[in-house]
Amino acid sequence: MAGMKTTISVIKADVGGYVGHSSMHPDLVAKANEMLEAATEKGRLVDFHVTSCGDDLELIMTHNKGPEAPDIHKLAWDIFLAGTEIAKKLGLYGAGQDILKDAFSGNVKGMGPGVAEMEFTERKSEPIIVFMADKTSPGAWNLPLYKMFADPFNTAGLVIDPSMHEGFNFLILDVLQSKEIMLSAPDELYDILALIGSHSRYMIKAIYRRADGEIGASASTQKLSLIAGKYVGKDDPVLIVRSQSGLPAVGEVLEPFAFPHIVEGWMRGSHNGPLMPVSFEDATPTRFDGPPRVIAAGFQVTDTHLIGPVDMFDDPGFDMTRDKANEIGEYMRRHGPFEPHRLPADQMEYTTLPSVLARMKDRFKEAK
Ligand code: F6R
Ligand code: MG
Ligand code: MG
User: Fold this and answer.
1) Closest listed ligand to the CA of 265
2) Which residues line ligand 1 (CB under 6 A)?
3) Which of 71, 118, 213, 332 is least enclosed, having the fewest CB within 10 Å?
4) pTM over 0.85
5) Catalytic residue at 331?
6) Domains in the chain with CATH codes
């Protein structure tokens, strides 16, 4: 409908893995499809697509209710509760892992699931890419988002498309202090990099075109560790990127993933490893519970409907990246329990260090 804004809500949770933390049982996907179909028939949303990446159930939904719509969040929450019930019956691993609260209170934020949402007035054609990753954290998007929206060596359009030439604003979250800051590229590139290079603390939350404020990207930045007051699980992230006609082209959006950069989250949330872009079919991390991986679902959004998806990393153009990721993965693995494969002590999901230190307290003598 003319004038009506379209909202995309991508809400995900791990409510049980199959087998271990590696993959998704088809019954959970079927249940999500069934519940979203029923909700669509009732007019609660317009369109949807259900998929999975590793052990995460991914709900991609379109509607006209704006971000943080209580009804959409409630729907997702109810699907995760229903999924948890199935996971319990099947004895799936970590059933209800991301369900951190008992009662729904209007918004899934802070309750365990991850959320990326954006609202816009549809252009004549609206290509979007939804990225979904497993065994990593939202900080994994920092490097690719920087390349997409600020690096002319990646995005030719920053130099040669007049509508992108003014650059983009980056909304960056400090997850430790729960504060956010808007910085402008290209003027403040060095400041942006000073922050987002520390990707376990500073995470890009959203990106807007400077010329007119149009939204270009929106990421999930819930940090389960902070939500729960202690590290309780993965915050495997999702990201929505709009593309073309004055925004990075589809190829410019995907190109940063041709470099398998090092991200945190592999094995026990406590190891660094390369982010491997894979097809939907290969989104099953089994080597040392990894390596971390990312899938990309491409859609045309038309009249609030999702036309797609196209499996964007199902392209031999990324074969070299996957080979490189395997080579880097192997190299990192050989470090075993040593940093930088193992994360610094304060960032590990699991750590025995405090109890080891407590046990040894009296055995430490003054160094001579
Ligand atoms: C990593 C991940 C897995 C688990 C590992 C141990 O993000 O989810 O690597 O951390 O399989 O899981 P538990 O402690 O549940 O046996
Ligand atoms: Mg899991
Ligand atoms: Mg996961």
Assistant:
1) 1
2) 20-21, 94, 135, 234, 265, 267-269, 289
3) 213
4) yes
5) no
6) 1-119 (3.30.70), 122-360+364-368 (no CATH)
